[in-house]
Write the structure tokens for this entry.
Amino acid sequence: DTAVSQTPKYLVTQMGNDKSIKCEQNLGHDTMYWYKQDSKKFLKIMFSYNNKELIINETVPNRFSPKSPDKAHLNLHINSLELGDSAVYFCASSQVGGSKYEQYFGPGTRLTVT
Amino acid sequence: GENVEQHPSTLSVQEGDSAVIKCTYSDSASNYFPWYKQELGKGPQLIIDIRSNVGEKKDQRIAVTLNKTAKHFSLHITETQPEDSAVYFCAASNSGGYQKVTFGTGTKLQVIP
């Protein structure tokens, strides 16, 4: 059983297009995250939602808009894609306030903008 | 905000040798320090973590040490095996609130058979 799943795994698109990445977790966690990993493997948080409420919003262009329809889902929509958006995007989840603080990561979505 | 530095960026060891990865953090409010392992094509996975009220933690071949005063923490892997080859990330966060985890820059570990 997949704990954190993302779709699609690969996404190749042209500059200027709009695309979405979906994430689902079946762990019952109340907090979900989006991370961006660039070509040098730097892993940086973009957004975090707790119980569908946005709680972390790092310095990310307005072209990126997260959406959490429920606790188990966190989607990422990107408008007007640019070359610099090419990266691997990871979704993660955790349970805030529990005894364990582990974040569980999805398999990643490799976005290539041409 | 928190800043986590990690060294070395690459590390090659012979199978059976030990590997040590070191990190420093800047925010004295950080109290939770996880280590993640990322295998090729996969998401990071937690391998060990330590809280600020503990100086050392061990789990089989993996150990982590924390020096709160110096704001240093390290990962030690003993008797390395080829399957230990991966990218390792240290991280720091304040577990008191919503978890904003700041990751180090990663160490690519290669274990040579």
Summary: The mean pLDDT of chain B is 93. Chain B touches chain A at residues 32, 34, 36, 38, 41-46, 49, 87, 89, 93, 95, 98-103, 105-106, 108 (CB under 8 Å). The first strand of chain B starts at residue 4 and ends at 7. The CA atoms of residues 66 and 87 of chain B lie 20 Å apart.
